[in-house]
Amino acid sequence: MQIGKYTNPNPILLALASFLIGLTAKLSHIVYWIRQKEVYMEGNIPLIQNPDGFFFARLIRDGAESPDFLRNYPFYVEYDLLPGVYYVGRFLYKLTGLPVEWIGVIMDAVLSNLFVFPLVLFFSSIGYPIVGFFASLLTALSQVYFSRTEINTIDTDTLNLFFPLLNAYLGLVILRSKGFWFFVYSLLFILSNLLHYLWYLHPQFLVVSSAGLLVFLALNKKFKESVFLAVCFALLGFAYFNLNI
């Protein structure tokens, strides 16, 4: 059905609108915290809302040193690599000089709503941008997701939807692309998986996402493309198991 000029709205504008609504909803909690300062704040500093957040907040504030004698007492922990939330938080902390708790508020509010962009783009690519808009809005405001990614949690959960949805969107685009653009989107898919791994430090996500794409390529009789990506994924696996990355 055609409904005038609004039949095919710009998916980026839809995603941006959903993002701003979700961001506003998250930041509105600050007003509630200020009204209940004796419960949610220590002076002008908001309290961290997640047990893991205290761990990451300490590292962001003091810098990660290995071995870490304040963890796993009376022993210690050595770090080769830390989840991406530490590096993002540490960068913002050094850049702004704000208390780490306010860094957590800003970082969590923004990152937890980024998923709306790949979600809206995915639905738009199959012809249902409005469905993508409402799906992103309902997800951003749902009680489960809202509480799981509450501001000032300072945890990896803030991107627990973004990377899987981005990989799903890129996988769909790869299935439809040929030639030069196939390699471009394949590179973006690999980059997204690497960033997903660096954010969580769990290779299982990379394995499942990569295997799923290979299966769909094979089912769509794109055997050459499937072999190419299988080789790329095998090289990533070799790097992970043999180069200690």
Can you describe what's shown?
The chain is an all-alpha fold and 245 residues long. Helix content is 69%, strand content 2%. The protein is built from 13 helices and two strands, in the order αααββαααααααααα. The chain has helices at residues 11-27, 29-35, 37-40, 51-62, 84-96, 100-111, 116-125, 129-141, 143-148, 162-176, 179-200, 203-219, 223-242; strands spanning 41-42, 45-46. Strand 1 and strand 2 (45-46) form a beta hairpin.
Structure summarized in a few sentences:
With 245 residues, the chain is mainly alpha-helical. Helix content is 69%, strand content 2%.
Fill in the keyword field for this structure.
245 residues, mainly alpha, two-stranded antiparallel ribbon, flat, disordered N terminus
- From the N-terminal CA to the C-terminal CA, the straight-line distance is 52 Å
Radius of gyration: 21 Å
Round the mean pLDDT to the nearest integer and report it. 86
Strand content: under 5%
Estimate the helix proportion, in percent: 55-70%
Strand ordering within the main sheet: 1-2
Number of helices: 13
Please trace the helix and strand order, writing H or E for each element.
HHHEEHHHHHHHHHH
- The parts where pLDDT drops under 50 for at least 5 residues are 1-5
Number of strands: 2
Global structural class: mainly alpha
